[in-house]
């Protein structure tokens, strides 16, 4: 069996045909929006008690897809798969095939929807303190994370999406796509699950 290490091209979609197809092109054609698009300064009157950095998690996923970090991860997975195949270790082959499929599914949920990208941010853990310091924020929270935002109800918000994108060192094409995707609304997660299950993306 061949492993699905590379994202599948978008085929026909149902319902949100235009948005799913367009986002599919954006996400995996080598690719989302400068920080200003997500900037939402919010206070509850008077001086803000704190400032948090918010980001569009989809942009992080898009910037990561095709980056050197992502390619290295896929390369290791493929190397392990080839070794298991050569050794005739069918159990290991099956486990790695599942890991590849699960990884692709997760990237779709992160790039099209609002799934958390903590696993991706782990790759740039060493940069996060500096990003927080440069932005003058006490925390980094996905703009789609309602619980995380509710934990800072009186905080001002500064968009740090672009800084996080750049920390992943995407190609120019991927960076542009990471910027552009923020112009579109996320696909609702239940709808996205159906598209993945149906093989639409």
Blueprint of the fold:
Elements: H1 17-28, E1 51-55, H2 57-64, H3 68-86, H4 90-112, H5 118-121, H6 125-135, E2 140-142, H7 146-150, E3 156-159, H8 161-167, H9 172-180, H10 189-197
What does this structure look like?
With 201 residues, the protein is mainly α. Strands 2-1-3 form a three-stranded parallel β-sheet. The protein contains ten helices and three strands, in the order αβαααααβαβααα. The two termini are 20 Å apart. The radius of gyration is 18 Å and the shape is globular. The N terminus is likely disordered. It has one domain.
**Alpha-beta content class:** mainly alpha
Instruction: Kindly report the average pLDDT value.
Output: 82
Helix coverage percent = 40-55%
Strand order of the largest sheet: 2-1-3
Total of DSSP H or I helical runs spanning 4+ residues: 10
* N to C succession of SSEs: HEHHHHHEHEHHH
Q: What proportion strand?
A: 5-15%
Instruction: Characterize the main sheet.
Output: 3 strands, parallel
Distance between the termini: 20 Å
Q: What is the general shape?
A: globular
The number of E-state strands comes to 3
Low-confidence stretches: 1-23, 25-45
Rg (CA only): 18 Å
Q: What number of domains?
A: 1
